[in-house]
UniProtKB/TrEMBL annotation, chain A:
Residues 7-331 form the DhaK domain. It comes from Agromyces aureus. SUPFAM superfamilies: DAK1/DegV-like. This is phosphoenolpyruvate--glycerone phosphotransferase. Pathway: Polyol metabolism; glycerol degradation.
Automatic annotation (TrEMBL), chain B:
This is Dihydroxyacetone kinase. GO terms for molecular function: glycerone kinase activity. Residues 6-207 form the DhaL domain. PANTHER family: TRIOKINASE/FMN CYCLASE, TRIOKINASE_FMN CYCLASE. GO terms for biological process: glycerol catabolic process. GO terms for cellular component: cytosol. Transmembrane segments: none annotated. Keywords: Kinase, Transferase. It comes from Agromyces aureus.
Length: 333, 215
């Protein structure tokens, strides 16, 4: 394992401290307990948006703290959800009297810790609603699993709900919108290589040189099937087919097409994949209205990508286009 | 002879030692079917409890120790293990009440309360390939031992044996809760890391008991 770190136990703290110094115009960073808050929070009368989860998915979530998106982010240990106390601290820090929305990816640990924090916040008189994202079609949801995972669709939920909160929508309106975005988003990912968690010091799973893992989550957890490496177009098709069937997406739909890198795949390959995805959607009469390509929710240095489709309506398009000013996403301002 | 604060404190110290010792093994088990953080997270939690033991007020009870463990795990572990073990120790503390000495029946009740807490938090059932599959046989064995008049040390020994067998028995199961559930049938053949850590912690409890009573 070669990594630019000092002590595996201090990776998150030292990284978040650096993030705070680099983006002092946008955020302030608290280290006891660790959370990142928008520089001008709390904003009176504005719904506060808090998200968080394990570290190692940068720029998620701290990279999305700022105008038009999140009010606070709570980074846990690498690939481990934060504990309730920093979530509670972040919730208190952004409460401007209009309530706070928790955006939580559907992983058991994240859900349990955010639930506990929300119960504690309620005891302090803060109204909290939670939206649990679960856009990953790789997981067959049933009574016998923990449900679908929340993956790249989370970024789209944060942007669109963040814009709604910025324009002054109420907590219920922002939460309902976040749920609508999640309900219209579907994702699927693949990995070419595993990643190395700093404290584990070895790859998260074993993958032969000519093998890829289809249906991975964002924590380096193994996916649902393992196949031989194939040309990019075929890989894109493998990801898109289950996505298109699932909502389903069909002729006349307007979508946002999001090709996300897992951290170790260069942009040249992501755009190459985007080209094929766009082609497949055109053939099906689906109109790609907006796009996002890059490393937005990652799994350390894992090579791989995910594709997300979001079925858009007029309001979502307007809110997607609304100004945003964060470390990792910035336009219109 | 009942178990007192000395036992409870010794259990915590032994827990910290055994988790540190098995940290890599737990990481490996979790890596097979999850994301590999279980050993690291529990090690962080128990390492944080040990220095706090020195701050316990004079006259503290086993229940106070269990509550200290609960609060520390909840605020340091994270993931699913933090809330699940945190709830387990919190419910155990409530069941222990303010008693200064715990007999076999009390120990069996405490273990049952811990298990029930995990079930209500995690909504898992027996056979889902989770820590419940170690806890439930341990609770059943403890209840049976207590009913037959066993003392606290023997009750904990029975619980630890059953937890170890339960952890081993998770290997052929298909995971239905937590992160391993995403693997479906591919989770078969791997031992559940939460069941394994449960077995380690209950063995530490039993070892602390036999040390404290000289059995």
């Amino acid at each position: 394992m070669k990594k630019i770190i000092n002590d595996p136990k201090r990776v998150v703290e030292e990284s978040v401290a650096g993030f705070g110094r680099a983006h002092a115009d946008l955020v302030r960073v608290e280290l006891e307990p660790v959370h990142v808050v928008r520089a001008d929070a709390p904003i009176a009368g504005k719904v506060g948006l808090v998200s968080g989860g394990g570290s190692g998915h940068e720029p998620l979530h701290a990279g999305y703290v700022g105008f038009g998106m999140l009010d606070a982010a709570v980074p846990g240990a690498v690939f481990t959800s934060p504990t309730p106390d920093p979530i509670l601290a972040a919730t208190k820090a952004v409460d401007g009297g209009a309530g706070v929305l928790h955006i939580v990816k559907n992983y058991t640990g994240d859900v349990l810790n955010f639930e506990t924090a929300a119960e504690l916040a309620a005891m302090d008189g803060i109204t909290v609603r939670a939206v649990v994202t679960d856009d990953d079609v790789a997981v067959k949801d049933s009574l016998y699993t923990a449900g679908r995972r929340g993956v790249a669709g989370t970024v789209l939920v944060e942007k669109i709900a963040g814009a709604a909160a910025e324009r002054g929508d109420s907590l219920d309106e922002v939460a309902d919108l976040a749920e609508r975005v999640n309900a219209n988003a579907r994702s699927m990912g693949l990995a070419l290589t595993a990643c190395v968690v700093p404290h584990a010091g070895e790859p998260s799973f074993d993958l032969a040189e000519d093998e890829i893992e289809i249906g991975i989550g964002i924590h380096g957890e193994p996916g649902r099937e393992r196949v031989g490496l194939e040309p990019a177009d075929r890989l894109v098709d493998r990801l898109l087919e289950p996505i298109l069937e699932d909502l389903p997406f069909g002729e006349g739909d307007r979508v946002l097409l999001f090709v996300n890198g897992m951290g170790g795949t260069p942009q040249v390959e992501l755009y190459l994949a985007y080209r094929r995805a766009d082609e497949v959607l055109r053939e099906r009469g689906i109109s790609v209205e907006r796009s996002l390509v890059g490393n937005y929710i990652t799994a350390l240095e894992m090579q791989g990508m995910s594709i997300t489709l979001l079925k858009l309506d007029d309001e979502m398009i307007e809110l997607w286009d609304a100004p945003v000013q964060t470390a990792a996403l910035r336009w219109g301002r | 002879m009942g178990l007192d604060i000395t036992w409870a404190v010794d259990w915590v110290r032994r827990s910290a030692d055994v988790i540190a010792e098995h940290r890599v093994e737990l990481i490996r088990l979790d890596r097979d079917i999850g994301d590999g953080d279980h050993g690291e997270n529990l090690d962080r939690g128990f390492t944080a409890v040990v220095p706090k033991l020195d701050d316990l007020a004079a006259g503290s009870t086993p229940g106070d120790v269990l509550k200290l463990v609960a609060m520390t795990l909840i605020s340091t572990v994270g993931g699913a293990a933090g809330p699940l073990y945190g709830t387990a120790y919190l419910k155990a503390a409530a069941a222990a009440g303010s008693e200064s000495s715990l007999d076999g029946e009390a120990i069996a009740k405490i273990l049952a309360a811990a298990r029930d807490g995990i079930v209500s938090r995690g909504k898992a059932e027996s056979g889902d390939k989770t820590m419940i599959d170690a806890w439930t046989p341990a609770v059943d064995a403890a209840a049976a031992a207590a009913a037959s008049g066993a003392d606290a040390t023997a009750v904990l020994a029975a619980a630890a044996d059953a937890a170890e067998a339960g952890a081993e028995a998770t290997e052929p199961l298909i995971a239905r809760k937590g992160r391993a559930s995403y693997l479906g049938e591919r989770s078969v053949g791997h031992r559940d890391p939460g069941a394994q850590s449960t077995a380690l912690l209950l063995r530490a409890a039993a070892d602390a008991a036999s040390e404290s009573t000289g059995a």
